[in-house]
Amino acid sequence: MRTKLFMLLALAGLAVAVIGVPASQGADPFVAGGPSSRTVALDRTSSDRALGRALDLGRALGLGGTRQTIARLDDRFDHRVYDEVVSFDAHGREVGLTRIDTNGALLLAIRLGWAPGAGRPITAVAAAGKAAAIAGAARLAVGGTPEVHSSQGAGGWVVRWPRIVDGVPVRGDGVRVAIWSDGSFHAVTREERPLAGRPTTVMTSEAARSIALRILAARFGASADALGVNAVEQAWVAPNDTWDPARPDAPDGTLRLAWIIRLESTGSLAERMRMLEFWLDAGDGALIGGDIAE
Amino acid sequence: MPVSRIRWLRQLIPPLLAATLLTAGSAAGIRAATYQASIDVNTTGFNPPCDGDANYIVPKMQKAATAAYTRLGHVATSRTGSSFTRAGTLGRTVNDWGYYVHSHGDYYWNSTDARRYTGFREDSGDCSQAVIFSKDIKAKRSGRQSNLVFVSTCHASDSNTTLPDAFAIAKTKSISPANQGPEFYVGYIGVRWDSDEWIFEQRFWNALANNQSAGAAFDIAMQGNFNDASFDADWWGTYSYGGVAGPWTVCPTCS
Question: Are residues B11 and B57 in the same domain?
């Protein structure tokens, strides 16, 4: 064992000599093309605390594993630092992954692999019940009726309790539980990103729609005729660079209250772009992001 | 050994292998350095004059995919505009071990065969963009093995998709200890938004860069904070395959 370790360290020295040491990325924002997370120092006390929390969660959720690795990651795409614990079985296979924030709160737990289950498939109603039990086991507070939809990628069902602030949904935030088709646990995430202050005055939906149509005419010219508004709704969103390349490559870490104007295309334009969204700051109507479905 | 050190050593494995290949000069090393990956990205279709306004997400996807395939040991070349054509893609595909495409995709009607195939549009630098059908790729590749194939288009991983077969990737999910070789196909289900695709792809590439297997990277990417709560994608291949270029010589996730 010691010999193997010595050989690995010697090879590591060779690799460093050949390839060089990566330059520190410091506090630079994420740039497309690079990895978004990097390992940072983790002290023994924090490591022990995160490992203990991950083991508790692993037992509660049935993640399994006979040994764990831990690393503290600085994730510049998601704008946060977390401790990632990977669990391995006796054969060295990865069986579980848990992310815990630096305050000890669960961000993510996944039972790795593909196990759609040998049992009978369960209904959407039963999936909601199973997911509530999983959230409880993970000590995540959920309430109200969740959204339930089938998911190929999840191997069964996704059950969500969206985050709502003063009656307005926070896009992407909330508690999300993925379960296999037979109702067994696959993954759970808790997302609760910081929100900017609510504007003192929120414009009306009519005003927002009017601004969006002006933007549409200015940016799309003749193509604007092939786009029609099919939804105007309010939500908290992470501003992005969909309409402005000067913005950072990652979505903002702080969400803002916005009016979302969704437009659908018709005719030949739909062969290239099916829908688009303008996200307008709910206070001043500034274009802070958006989306495109090709 | 402290657990963090084990992880640190695991992270050294790819650069160690790279260093070995760079310095060995053996025939095997030379072959390994020439595993080709093509990254085809349709930008013209999503920019003026084709759709009226610029799309700034697509170039990020191109950069991220090119860098990711390079990190995985491929000789990765990206093409867009008039260099991403149907003829060019079909001419190169037989030598591609890795393939990424971002474009408009669908389950297109093929009038010659009077049936539908999954496919995607070329860029070609203009607004009349021919469809590249899965059957076109399949005919050129003739069953040749693929590594990591990422089809970043709508409908690429719908249950009826015909694209994995074009790359000789069986539509099965192999979990360790089972494996179906060093191959992994990933794509989206239904119509998806660019911002969600970008979140998924960056998380996927980042997990691979951190030495997760392609299957684990998919699982991690699926937990993104998507704007569309019904976001969905699917995969086929070997869960524990790490996306490294070429035939399997070592299992990167095995201890």
Answer: no
